[in-house]
Amino acid sequence: MRTPIIAGNWKLNKTVSEAVSLTIDLIKLVDKISDVEIVIAPVFTALSDVHDAINGSNIQLAAQDVYWEDSGAFTGEVSAPMLKDVGCDYVIIGHSERRQYFAETNESVNQKVKAALSHDLKPIICVGELLEEREAGKTESVIEDHVKGAIVDLSVSEMESCVIAYEPVWAIGTGKTATPDQAQEVHNFIRNILEDCYSDKLASQIRIQYGGSVKPENAEELMSQPDVDGALVGGASLDAESFAEIVKQSR
Ligand code: 13P
After folding, report:
1. What is the pTM of this model?
2. Averaged pLDDT in 10-residue chunks for the chain of 251 residues
3. R_g over Cα of the chain
């Protein structure tokens, strides 16, 4: 069936040496695990060194964002071929922090997803509602808008390379996790959207991660839900033991 995927989004944390040391600690804790995909997403400046550190291990590398042009006069951006060049396998796209603080839109998310795919990087597409949207009963319409907006014009094989991360914004960094039932409900809704847009077969293959205050204490219950295929972990991924424990609980 679907192999669980646990990704650590390190956000704006860790110097190069700190990132490498966290990576080395993590490798020791998860080296026997082969039935979970394990991904870490350091800051851009640490990607190359972390890539060297994970060489030969069961850990894969992700970037936290990408720009859609390959090169040119776009000061401050980093492109898909550049991420590929430093050994990235995945790239997180459309994280709510980018939507909130850096004017990311469905259109830019879609352009970034296409750029990543065209350079053989697998997108982790983030979607999720704000607290006020949930309270106003708009969760499904927001999720539908984010999912459909991100995947405009993707072929079946392109879609097959994508992972979707459902991250309710109200659960990120707040310690307030969605209940397993709340997560399952939205994950199932996302799978139904994929079924409508593509097929039952494709929908049943796509991994949908949950993100938002995932910790060793709540990971097992969340990931035992039928449509929850892993986690996108923020804070708890900055500690090797916590992250390794979450990985183990996803099996
Ligand atoms: P926390 O696990 O810190 O809530 O962050 C979740 C997240 O945003 C992962 O991308």
Report:
1. 0.98
2. 96 98 98 97 98 98 98 98 98 98 98 98 98 97 98 98 98 92 98 98 98 97 97 98 97 90
3. 17
